[in-house]
Structure prediction request, 341 residues.
Amino acid sequence: MTAVRHKTRLALLLLALVVVVLTVLANWRPSLTRWQAFLLPAPAPAAPLQVTWLGTATVLVSDGDNAIMTDGFFSRQSLFQVASGDIEPDLARIEAGLAKAGVDGPGGLDAVVVLHSHYDHAMDAPEVARRTGAVILGSESTANVARGWDLPAAQIHVPAPGEMLQFGQFELELVPSAHVPMLPFIARLTGHGETIDTPLRPPAPVSAWKEGQSYALVLRHPQGRLLIQGSAGFVGGELASHEVDVALLSTGSLGRQSTRYIGRYFEETVLATGAHTVIPMHWDHFFSVLDRNTHPLGPLLDDFHGAMDGLQQQSALHDRDFHLLEPLDTFGMEGGRLTGN
Prediction:
């Protein structure tokens, strides 16, 4: 019996050690210090077109008359909450996130464009649309997320392939794309390549928010053209006929890909569109509350420096400007160029 108790204590000790190590790695804060030279100045100079990064792939683009937001994800539950039970939109955090973005009440947004239907892209979008009066644009899976939140049908639109959408001086096109490759068990958990076929009513497990169709958003305005890439995936040749000035590229899980993959990602997004400026996003620790101190994902979840090194090296090789934003930062555009640079 003594030997059994000893083995049990040893097993519990080893389990506790593993939990401690995984917790430390999950919360490790990669430093932005080595990237300070690439940070855009804050606050942004005044400009007719303002672009604000709100963490993950949530981006607000406004010209003062109309405003477009991608995804609108603000709930940012902890990793423990996501892994251990059902989740649902956090109304208080959504309200606080919209306030930080300066989006106030009905009429604050024209459209919420959901780039795919994983929870960190689609879960909050129906509530953001409800509060602002915006229309949700996305796949049929995204439409089922909105239906499950009882958003009126008039505020839900699934664009046809190649459909152009006009909001004031903004022209939008959702271009079919792909999700970044993931570890097999994560792909299974998050419904990689699967669809949401019925209205999704939260609370629900994270696995309920299946990927659906992934998109790249091409957004055109007289003052600048943007590519907003919702995941670090690509479909060969899909963006070849689209010209943009700035590419905002998601980098979640990009640091875990090969050098060759990063080169292809750059080729199919930046070189294909002729973008002169590259700005990474979706590198933030989205299991923490959004603020100016939000740090990159730790090494258990991603290789932040590997992704940044890969994109910066590709940018230098192809004579592109490479910049970083911190969460809640804004840059301005005028005549296709960033202001103040």
Q: What stands out?
A: The longest helix spans residues 2-27.
